[in-house]
């Protein structure tokens, strides 16, 4: 079989499918090639407000109305109850001490709760990827994308200006004659193996490993630990982070009762636990973390444990002659702070626009070079911040303060995008904003030196100062003792500092459904 297309997209996770659909809407003929078959297990499930906004923007920009409901919990559940998802009201962090139950003090020194939404209807989501990704592949088929699964591809061959993807499908030889190839096959994927593209060693992050599975029977953490009543959101309806020396555990709850959980561990801890042993290592880890062990007491894994001996990945190349990698194929830093989706969704829009902007090869190459530069810059700042957080696992007050850099940048960017002023918040983690980028680079470098005494105190103060000009969420208010609800008043207070008129805030609040939050019920019921 031989097919001639404008663009071949390799890899049919949601990112490959959305890229294929957007390219189709821009008038390109597209083939979507997958080595496996849907539905299939995929990791990377937790969305964020910025990812939700990007979903809405992609839906608008590429005329994909069926994408729009997936931006929010309420609209997703109403439009597609058959596609699994979980409610994510915010980010919950709890600090655990090895071999001791979780306990806290009146200052809530051992926790950080940052709300992403004031109520469930506009809450974020965890995407149950087997359902979600299969849905988008079906949409591709309906939109006229040539979808070929169970396809094994060899190294692309150049033929003049075009690339030949030669492979085998169901025992039959196959050739895709493509004007351009987009690699959407994830880390260490298609081009990494066949082109090949060298792997770079992370510059700031220590070597890490991952161990994860899906579970049933996982207890809510607020039923296992003595938590103060009245959190800004039920702490389990969130991306729940359990942080400890040498790593952290994520717990993401789907509405079906299924839970995605796993650990990101430094090499030192992973090898002490023998992480390659899978479930045995997981149990051993929990044996040292009694409150998390209580949460998983009656849990059972319903998918095989996956051990990734190298979690972080970085490709040395983003674009080449006739090819480009999506951000998710260029790099993964860590699941901490759920950065994968927004980085990928930002990249989809940029890449599709670069490929559609002009038929003039020189202009297209210039657009692709810009795409490559932005992709690298965003992965760089993400790695810096996550590495600084890893360096601060043992100093939780510093960890929390550094994490607020992310929340300040994210909530500022969301606000500006919602106000139609995206240009004031350029790049992921504001990496196109010189003042913020310089501050973030300097502060994270100081954190990587693991400061103590006066140097550490100065760092805490300087992080706080760096956040002030971008703070739209009351993140500098110490009286909140590290519980940060979504308060419309914070936006109103920040408006004069940001040069935003009160009526713009009122319009934003009405448009986005940002009504005053209701207090969460004690015990966690939503
Ligand atoms: C442990 C872990 C946890 C994460 N958690 C989060 C999170 O909570 N939030 C977040 O935002 N991000 C998270 N991420 C990142 C997230 O997984 C990615 O951003 C996301 O999966 C990107 O989706 P994708 O469609 O690009 O890639 P994938 O989901 O990896 O899909 C790639 C597809 O390509 C196919 N493929 C691979 N090789 C080939 C080939 N040679 N030929 C054809 N097809 C091929 C695969 O079968 C697969 O279907 C996490 C990542 C990891 C590793």
Task: Describe what this molecule looks like in 3D.
The chain is an alpha/beta fold and 526 residues long. It folds into 3 domains: 2-81 and 128-198 and 316-374, FAD/NAD(P)-binding domain (3-Layer(bba) Sandwich); 86-126 and 202-308, D-Amino Acid Oxidase, Chain A, domain 2, CATH 3.30.9; 376-524, no CATH class. Helices cover 38% and strands 20% of the residues. It is built from 16 helices and 22 strands. Strands 1, 2, 7, 8, 9, 10, 11, 19 and 20 form a 9-stranded mixed beta sheet that branches. Strands 4, 5, 12, 13, 14, 15, 16, 17 and 22 form a 9-stranded mixed beta sheet that branches. A hairpin with a 2-residue loop joins β10 (162-169) and β11. The radius of gyration is 23 Å and the shape is globular. The termini are far apart. The model is unreliable at 522-526 (pLDDT under 50). Bound molecules: flavin-adenine dinucleotide (FAD). Residues 10-16, 33-36, 42-46, 153, 184-186, 189-190, 210, 212, 262, 326, 328, 332, 335, 338, 340-341, 344 line the site of flavin-adenine dinucleotide.
> Main β-sheet: number of strands, strand sense, barrel status?
9 strands, mixed
**Any idea what the CATH architecture of the largest domain is?**
3-Layer(bba) Sandwich
Global morphology: globular
Could you give the distance between the termini? 53 Å
The residue ranges in which pLDDT falls below 50 over 5 or more consecutive positions are 522-526
What is the class of the largest domain in the CATH system?
Alpha Beta
Bound ligands: flavin-adenine dinucleotide
Quickly count the domains: 3
Radius of gyration: 23 Å
CATH topology heading of the largest domain:
FAD/NAD(P)-binding domain
Strand content: 15-25%
In total, the number of strands is 22
Structural class: alpha/beta
């Amino acid at each position: 079989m031989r097919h001639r297309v404008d663009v071949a997209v390799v890899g049919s996770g949601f990112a490959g499918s959305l890229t294929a659909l957007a390219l189709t809407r821009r008038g390109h003929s597209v083939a979507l090639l997958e080595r496996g078959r849907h539905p299939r297990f995929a990791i990377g499930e937790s969305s964020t407000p910025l990812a939700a906004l990007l979903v809405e923007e992609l839906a608008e920009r590429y005329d994909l109305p069926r994408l729009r409901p997936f931006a929010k919990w309420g609209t997703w559940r109403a439009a597609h109850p058959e596609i699994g998802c979980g409610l994510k009201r915010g980010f919950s962090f709890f600090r655990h001490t090895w071999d001791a139950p979780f306990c806290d003090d009146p200052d809530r020194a051992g926790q950080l709760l940052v709300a992403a939404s004031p109520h469930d209807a506009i809450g974020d989501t965890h995407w149950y990827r087997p359902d979600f990704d299969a849905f988008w592949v079906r949409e591709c088929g309906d939109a006229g994308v040539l979808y070929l699964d169970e396809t094994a591809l060899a190294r692309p061959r150049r033929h003049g200006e075009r690339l030949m993807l030669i492979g085998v499908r169901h025992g039959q030889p196959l050739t895709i004659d493509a004007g351009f190839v987009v690699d959407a096959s994830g880390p260490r994927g298609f081009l990494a193996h066949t082109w090949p593209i060298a792997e770079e060693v992370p510059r700031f992050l220590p070597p890490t490993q991952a161990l994860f599975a899906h579970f049933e029977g996982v207890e809510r953490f607020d039923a296992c630990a003595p938590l103060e009543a009245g959190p800004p959101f039920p702490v389990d309806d969130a991306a729940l982070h359990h942080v400890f020396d040498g790593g952290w555990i994520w717990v993401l709850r789907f509405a079906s009762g299924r839970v995605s959980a796993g650990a990101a561990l430094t090499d030192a801890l992973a090898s002490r636990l023998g992480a390659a042993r899978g479930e045995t290592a997981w149990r051993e880890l929990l044996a040292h973390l009694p409150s998390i062990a209580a949460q998983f007491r009656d849990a059972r894994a319903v998918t095989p444990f996956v051990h990734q001996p190298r979690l972080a990945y970085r490709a040395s190349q983003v674009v080449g002659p006739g090819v480009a990698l999506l951000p998710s194929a260029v790099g993964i830093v860590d699941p901490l702070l759920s950065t994968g989706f927004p980085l990928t969704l930002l990249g989809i829009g940029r890449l599709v626009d670069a490929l559609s902007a002009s038929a003039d090869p020189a202009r297209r190459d210039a657009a692709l070079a810009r795409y490559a530069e932005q992709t690298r810059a965003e992965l760089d700042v993400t790695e810096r911040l996550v590495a600084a957080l890893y360096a601060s696992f043992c100093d939780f007050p510093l960890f929390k303060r550094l994490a607020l850099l992310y929340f300040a940048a994210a909530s500022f960017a969301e606000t500006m995008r919602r106000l139609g002023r995206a240009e004031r918040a350029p790049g992921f983690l504001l990496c196109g904003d010189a003042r913020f980028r310089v501050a973030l680079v300097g502060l994270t470098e100081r954190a990587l030196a693991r400061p103590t005494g006066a140097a550490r105190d100065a760092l805490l103060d300087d992080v706080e100062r760096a956040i002030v000009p971008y703070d739209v969420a009351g993140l500098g208010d110490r009286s909140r003792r590290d519980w940060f609800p979504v308060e419309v008043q914070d936006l109103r207070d920040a408006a004069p500092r940001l040069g935003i008129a009160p009526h713009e805030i009122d319009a934003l609040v009405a448009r986005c459904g940002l009504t005053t939050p209701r207090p969460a019920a004690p015990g966690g019921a939503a």
